[in-house]
Design brief:
The complex is a heterodimer of chains A (about 375) and B (about 350). With about 375 residues, chain A is of the alpha/beta class. Helix content of chain A is about 40%, strand content about 10%. Chain B has one domain: TIM Barrel (Alpha-Beta Barrel). Classes of the chains: A alpha/beta (about 375), B alpha/beta (about 350).
Chain lengths: ~375, ~350
Amino acid sequence: MNEVVSTLSRRNQYAISRMAIADCDLHPAPNSLADLRPYLDDRWWRHLESFGARRRHGCLTGSAYPKGSPGANRRDADPPGGRKPGSNLEFMRAQHLDPNNVQLGILNMISPHPGGVQNPGLSAAMCAAINDWQVVEWTSRDVRLRASVMVPYEQPADAAAEIYRRAGDPNFAQVLLLSRTAEPLGQRRYWPIYEAAVAADLPIGVHAFGYGGAPLTSGGWPSFYIEEMIGHAACCESVITSMVVEGVFERFPALRVILVESGFAWVPAHAWRMDKNWRTIKEENPAVTRLPSEVIRQNIWFTTQPMEEPEDPRHLLDIIEWIGWDRLMFATDYPHWDYDDPTTCLRVSLTEAQRAALFHDNAWRFFVKNRVQDRADDNQ
Amino acid sequence: MLAGAIDCDVHPTLPGLRALFTYLDDAWRETFVQRGMHELVSNNYPPGAPLSVRPDWRPDVGPPAQLPQLRSHVLDPMQTRAAICNCLYGVQLLFSEDMAAAIARAINDWMARELLDREPRLRASIVVPMQNTELAVDEIERHASDKRFVQVLVLAMGDMPLGRRAYWPIYAAAERHHLPIGIHAGSNYHNPTTPTGWGTYHSEDYINQAQAFQTQLASLVCEGVFRRFPRLRVVLIESGFTWLPACLWRMAKFWRGLRPDVPWVDRSPAEIVREHVRLTLQPLDVPPDQEHLERFWEHVGSDELLLFSTDYPHWQYDGDVPLPSGLPAGLVHKIMIDNPLATYPRLREALQ
């Protein structure tokens, strides 16, 4: 007994001595779809049992690019009792939230994210079910956690309806899309989602992955999972290209977009390349009135994981400076295998202000404070 | 500017399909006439778009970048020692393997007669029908003995990632004949131009070329192309280059995490790329100020990667100086002369 108490107290002291962290990419998961059963009506549950959730790829279960570990999870993240990693709040607290002093955790449901499910009714029903499940099982049980509004993003009208339904609910911090959509995300068919997000004062999170039907590269299907992982950065660069060149941020200047789990070292070079093509952009689409790098600087944020690893770690400081110390938000990707450990991932010394901004304050401002402040302003 | 530079990317314009008629056999010539085929201009460079021709290089009438203009606009004023012609006609767009092979053959013969025979400073890349590996190899073999062909030309966005093993006979032929594989910006438009479908605008397609190059590098490395063909060199042409350091950092990270997926990749992708891959200079997607640029060169970590190019007649820069400012003289010499010679064995043989 004494031993247990002393272990606990050592752990707490350890956590308290650490700086508070905001983790912008936590992955809860249902142990199985049966966990969602209470939130789905009979018609869609029967449909799921009969046909499954069909997406724009061949595998009903499993993956044509098998992960490097079961479920792409850390091998030490299995909760007791044989449940799936990410399916048990108590274990997530004990393994990650408490010892790392996570004060704000953004939940991103991606296994599954039903936004790309082909059947439109099923996609909408599953998104709504997961939103309910997140509140009951997660955010109402731990004040540090905020959920993402899952939306059937290939049906923007339905997605907007789901956003309006959750607007003003403090359990939700952002709207969640996957990066590999059926069309580039700047295209007008998706604009109702942005309109609703701005109205609901929710940022749009774009998380890597998804199946939109197009090959994973613009030169066809690669062979290996490692290529899929490397390719997420390139995919998200195209997402930015589309959103900027289509003029999304001219139409919705208050829209805030955060790219999740695509790294960040590629951002400056992509902005330079877009600026280089400014002449063509403004001739093709006069609606775009600002330099792409300015648009990116004003409307787009990034999470850190998977943090790129230069041979000289100091080069990462140049990159962060070029993106802006106020634009990057720390994320671990817990419980996935490529988890960035907050204690070891950044192998450079930071000032206290830089550390606070990157690991906590930027996210706090982005997800919490801005909204509180805005509401205070409205009330005046 | 340094005299005697080697310009690794210029684009003489094929005046039209009709210009190839004397290089086609009777059956194909008759086919083109019968079927009313006059043009095969690709969407990659709409002729009227700003990028496609620099304004002061755009002629009042007729096609741009004909031989006299190429001489007066770049070869003469820059005192270029050699320039590599990359013909961007729409061969890759076709779906018929036979028709693509016929046009590729005609283009290569047209380049040999109309450009290389007339201007000793010019070299050319062999245009190959990537629709069919066997026919592509045939085309390489057909020109291999002509040392003025110094490279094999493919596009950055094709049917399959370039590392895929179906293409390996092409690399075997290229390695055998000391021909680097030049991957040039552009799509055959057989796949959507992004992993999330078709972009709306030309500017998107062009910007997104950099993403195609990144995933092609990943494919070449992960499939083990350079392990199988240790003497093969790949040149990324009109690719931009500032995306490279971040791409290598990312590849190295995932290689450390996922090596069992590709066990034959037995050293860091960054090391493999630095040994086997080169990039041309233009377009300069560089940071806005000098101080950032100096720090960026440190990220590149090598002075051997860049090869001088003007990308003539594309509108990538104004005035006479295609180099970024503030480069140390030693690096300028490497980019303009040493690195191209080290990359192209056939140029080295002829010019050194």
